[in-house]
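debug: dumping io for the single-chain case to check the tokenizer round-trip. Nothing else runs in this session.
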Amino acid sequence: MDHELDNPVWNALISGNQSLALGTETVKFFADDVAPFVGLKEYTFENFDILYNHIKDGRRCVVVSTNEILFPGSWEIIESLHVLQMVYANTFIKSLGNKNIISLGEQNTEEMIQLTELTHPGPFKNGTIRFGHYEGIFDNGKLVAMAGQRLHPCPYAEISAVCTHPDFMKKGLATQLILSQIFRIRSSSEIPFLHVVDHNMKAIKLYNDLGFTKRSDIHIYVIKKILRR
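debug: decoded output
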């Protein structure tokens, strides 16, 4: 039996993120304003053809898999990334240490988009807040750090959108937000995990120090369909 995290987008869309799922019995995806991720039950040419017919022209899709994927000629690979998938392995959680962490909602969307556009933690759109569980730290009314949850392939929950404004680095804000997310996920009897680009050694060290260990190498593809004439 395959592990839930071998095909995390598909397994999220049929379990913890089911309420956000669009598509068919073998091909599922999020609305474009929520997230670019698409999940296929099996990465066959037939399923990519189904995806082709369900995705609007011009949309960029993100595919995540432990295995390299062969795409049919109707799709163009825009970008290919190698990342590490890390799972929280500790049996204890360090003290949160900061009571200034605030839950974020739709009223904070504009600030959240501005912060992610500045720091580039990953795709964040107007509807991404629908994943829920986003938290932030403010300084004089300005959002300066945030983190939240994205993919939810039960019983795993992905910590995502971890970012800090450049003017507030080295203050431990990201660490506090990650610990808060770990505590929330573990309190729901679930398992935290995350993805990090393999050359981001600073982030990898932080995640190791917090109790995450590498589970697998992951291939991420940004693809766009080639319009048929």
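debug: round-trip ok. The chain has a mean pLDDT of 94.
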